[in-house]
Structure formats: structure tokens, C-alpha cells
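TA notes, week 10

Several of you asked for a full example with nothing omitted. So below is the full record: C-alpha cells for the whole chain, then the designed sequence directly under it. When grading your own attempts, check the secondary structure regions first.
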């Protein structure tokens, strides 16, 4: 598969996964956590599909996004996930309904380790019935895996459901 085709498949799977997450929490109040702002692509998409009433809190250590895709200071936790996630718990409690982990940096082993290092802090922020969409497999969430919707090949993106 060409790199172009691979990129298209990855982005398509991400889009389907975010739509799936949105549909799982329809009609229930609670914020969204976006881990990894990057260039702001998925943050912007979440804003678009979720609408203005759903708050999105972004976690990122370094702002490199297009200025249009940078959240205001009240919705940005700037710093390393290991510092900012525990800080967020004090502000938000266990209320989030969607966690989107888009944290990969190209080094698969480091990215998987990071996901496993932060997963307890992410989980603490989730309310009953929350879902997580992750670009990394989270080993200890194995028993929370959701059935993948059509269009997402196995192993490309990982969906988890946290029952109440
Ligand atoms: C794959 S990119 C995110 C792409 C983004 N969601 C988008 O659609 O444009 C991963 C991001 O995670 C951030 N990141 C990785 N490890 C981090 C850490 N330990 N703490 C905070 N941010 C981190 C990187 O700075 C990078 O911007």
C-alpha cells in the first residue's frame, strides 16, 4: 500500500472512530478530553461534529497548531500529560464522556509505553458510560474493547467503553 493510501486509511478510520464516540454519548452532558493537539486537525473536527455546547479540554506539551485551532486558556492543559492529567482531575473530576488519545510520535514502543503510563490518569477523569478512542493499544483496557464499526481495520485505532 502506498504511503498516501495508508495516510488516507488512517485518517478515515480516525474520522469514523470520532463519529462513533460522538454517537455513544449523545444526549448526555460531559466534556471531551483531546490528548495531543498536534496541528489541531482532530480538535477542529471534534469541535465541528460535537457543536458548541460540548466542552473540549485539550492536553498538549507544545503548541504547534494553526492559530484557528488553539483552544482558549480555560480549555488548555499545557505541559506533559503526566503533570496535566492529575491537575485536570482537580478541576474536572470524573466527568469526561469522551477521551481521544492521539499521542503517537512515530516511535511505536515509546508511544505504547506512554499510553500505558497515563491510562490510570485518563481513566480517573472518565464518568460512567464514557468511551475512549486511542491511536495506541492500552493493554489494561483489553476487557473494555468495543466492536469496531465498519471502515476501521483491526489494529489501526482502538475503541474502549467504560460502563457505569
Ligand atoms: C499525533 S500528534 C497529535 C495529532 C493531532 N491530534 C492532530 O489531529 O493534529 C501527537 C501529539 O501529542 C503530543 N504529545 C506526545 N507526548 C506528549 C506528552 N507526554 N505530553 C504532552 N503532549 C504530548 C505531541 O506534542 C504531539 O503534538
Amino acid at each position: 500500500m502506498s504511503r498516501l493510501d495508508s495516510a488516507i486509511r488512517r485518517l478515515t478510520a480516525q474520522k469514523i472512530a470520532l463519529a462513533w464516540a460522538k454517537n455513544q454519548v449523545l444526549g448526555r452532558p460531559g466534556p471531551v478530553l483531546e490528548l495531543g493537539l498536534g496541528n489541531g486537525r482532530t480538535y477542529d473536527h471534534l469541535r465541528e461534529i460535537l457543536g458548541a455546547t460540548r466542552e473540549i479540554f485539550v492536553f498538549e506539551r507544545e503548541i504547534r497548531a494553526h492559530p484557528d485551532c488553539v483552544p482558549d486558556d480555560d480549555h488548555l492543559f499545557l505541559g506533559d500529560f503526566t503533570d496535566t492529567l492529575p491537575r485536570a482531575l482537580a478541576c474536572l473530576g470524573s466527568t469526561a464522556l469522551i477521551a481521544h488519545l492521539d499521542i503517537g510520535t512515530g516511535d511505536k514502543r515509546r508511544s505504547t509505553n506512554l499510553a500505558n503510563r497515563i491510562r490510570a490518569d485518563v481513566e480517573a477523569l472518565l464518568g460512567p458510560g464514557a468511551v475512549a478512542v486511542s491511536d495506541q493499544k492500552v493493554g489494561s483496557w483489553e476487557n473494555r474493547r468495543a466492536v469496531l464499526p465498519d471502515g476501521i481495520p483491526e489494529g489501526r485505532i482502538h475503541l474502549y467503553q467504560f460502563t457505569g
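The radius of gyration is 15 Å. Use that as a sanity check on your answer.
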